[in-house]
Write a structure and sequence with these properties.
With 395 residues, this protein is α+β, with helices and mostly antiparallel strands. The chain is 39% helix and 18% strand. It has a four-stranded antiparallel beta sheet with strand order 11-18-15-16, with helices on one face. The chain has a three-stranded antiparallel beta sheet with strand order 4-3-5. Strands 1-2 form a two-stranded antiparallel ribbon. The longest helix has 40 residues.
Length: 395
């Protein structure tokens, strides 16, 4: 049975075993219900909590999860229980009770029953839960909005540069659905190329004319280490605990815009450097863009849009995975759109990115406020009216 996961952003039911009928639910002892507080009871994430929201799909909890369910709402408000589970009052008790098995930390059901919660009057519970819940909802809304904006950028890129929708619409005498000044720069027909049909006037360029391998070592320069993953390039200190080696002098140097290819299994493992300076394992292949008409961001999106095509650059050369062949990568080609169309896309993408950054900044502010207010409201150190004034002043 697959497990639901408690994550920093909430509970992820995507991989959980679902049930579809009331009869099935009645037979299963650990079925989710709205307002359940879920806690991880085994593993490195022991003590992490989340809540089942109304509208979340029903699921069966895994053996490594426990749930706390309010049975009498005249005594405790579910929203208050949710906020208390995240408070230092709860987490300090949980940490004190956790024991370690041979494999990982563990929190027993017996210990969970010993947890103590101080309950203010029900009216104060509801008021505190409503205020903190409103902050949580706004943070969650910002997260969903950012995900939607990123999806819009991905869909627009695929439409323009992979599916060639505006060109297809014009070639059939239709309306591409774009502002006149943007529609005018797309051609109205296709031509044959080594990559198949591409928009007339666009070119198919081999990566050997766009990328150049870099083997420059970091030497004694001070620079953080990065690792290439299936999700892109990431700081090694954030993703992994193990260091690459005692001496990093042989690491390859990477600069902003460089492409780093790691060892691949089934999917192309690569990332683009977004910071100024860093280093990666000598086993990685590093390339820099030498064609100014192909921005690194454009190339990255093209490669992620057609991963199976670019996976052809992989050659079996390592026990731990398969490495990119410089020669095989060089013969692969990309469709190179005119600069004017690229400029329009990146201007739209920048506007979307700015909105995402604004939402991220707001969420950071709201999270700081929520974290500061949470212990004070849970312990009744301040009243809801004072907390609301803090929120108003800060936002």
């Amino acid at each position: 049975m697959r497990a639901a996961l408690v994550q920093d952003s909430g509970i992820n039911l995507a991989g959980a075993e679902r049930f579809s009928s009331k009869r099935t639910a009645a037979l299963l002892p650990k079925c989710s219900r709205p307002d359940d507080v879920v806690i991880t009871t085994k593993g490195n994430s022991t003590g992490r909590t989340a809540v089942i929201r109304p509208g979340d799909p029903p699921a069966v909890y895994s053996p490594h999860l426990s749930f706390w369910r309010v049975l009498d709402r005249r005594v405790i408000d579910p929203g208050f229980l949710r906020q208390w589970a995240r408070s230092t009052q709860c987490q300090e008790q949980v940490r004190a009770m956790m024991s370690s098995t041979d494999m990982a930390p563990y929190l027993s059901l017996r210990d969970q029953l010993k947890l103590c919660i101080a309950l203010p009057p029900l009216s104060r519970q509801r008021a505190s839960a409503a205020l903190l819940g409103a902050l949580d909802d706004k943070i969650d809304l910002n997260r969903k909005m950012s995900a939607t904006l990123e999806s819009v950028a991905l869909a627009l890129f695929k439409s323009w540069f992979v599916d060639f929708d505006p060109v297809l619409a014009k070639s059939e005498g239709g309306d591409p659905g774009l502002p006149i000044e943007i529609a005018a720069i797309f051609p109205d027909s296709f031509e044959e190329s080594e990559l198949g049909r591409i928009p007339k006037g666009w070119s198919a360029a081999p990566l050997s004319e766009i990328l150049e391998e870099s083997i420059e070592r970091i030497g004694n320069q001070a620079a953080p280490e990065y690792s290439s993953t299936n999700e892109g390039l990431q700081l090694r200190s954030v993703r992994f605990k193990k260091t690459l080696s005692r001496s990093a002098t042989r690491n390859k140097l990477i600069r902003r815009g460089y492409f780093v290819f790691g060892l691949s299994r089934k999917v192309l493992n690569f990332g683009i450097m977004r910071d100024e300076l860093g280093s990666v394992s000598p086993a990685y292949k590093v390339f820099r863009v030498v064609n100014p008409s192909v921005p690194p961001a454009m190339l990255e999106r093209l490669m992620r849009a057609s991963p199976s095509y670019y996976y052809r650059a992989i050659s079996a050369s390592s026990r731990e995975g398969q490495a990119v062949s410089t020669q095989a990568l060089g013969v692969l080609k990309i469709v190179q759109p005119p600069q004017a169309i690229q400029d329009w896309f990146f201007s739209i993408e920048m506007a979307l990115a700015q909105r995402m950054k604004a939402a991220e900044r707001e969420s950071h502010t709201l999270s700081s406020i929520r974290n500061a207010l949470l212990p004070k409201l849970i312990s009744c150190e301040i009243c809801e009216a004072d907390a609301e004034r803090v929120v108003e002043r800060s936002t």
